[in-house]
Amino acid sequence: MTHAAAPFVLVVEDDDNIAAVLEYILLREGFAHERVASGAKALHRMQTLRPDLVLLDIMLPEVSGYDLCQSARRDPALRAMRIVMMTASGSAIQRSRSLQAGADGFISKPFELQTLRDEIRRHLP
What we know:
This protein is α/β, with parallel strands linked by helices. It has helices at about 15-30, 40-50, 65-75, 90-100, 115-125; strands at about 10, 30-35, 55, 80-85, 105-110. A five-stranded parallel beta sheet has the order 2-1-3-4-5, sandwiched between helices. Helix 2 packs parallel to helix 3 (about 65-75). It starts with 7 loop residues before the first strand and ends with a helix.
């Protein structure tokens, strides 16, 4: 999108332990990234940063990942941004609801590191 060098990933995750794992993987893969821990701040950061990919937790304080994903899809400036939703309850219902909200991908937590790497790479240029 707006980042010429390494792809830029926005991590929207309120759990510090999961965020640390995600940040470790992103660093090892050479991706620039930033983390936001609350749903209320996430949409503004998406609009400001225009990340290439958003790793978006479903269960967030203040605003759910579903609502954030739908808001991003309604915004013409964010519509093409890639979004992978993440949840600790990887049920078929949550996967379906994520895709209906406009997500490009879905991953269940806890995730296998290689599965996460593959999902990230699948959505980046």
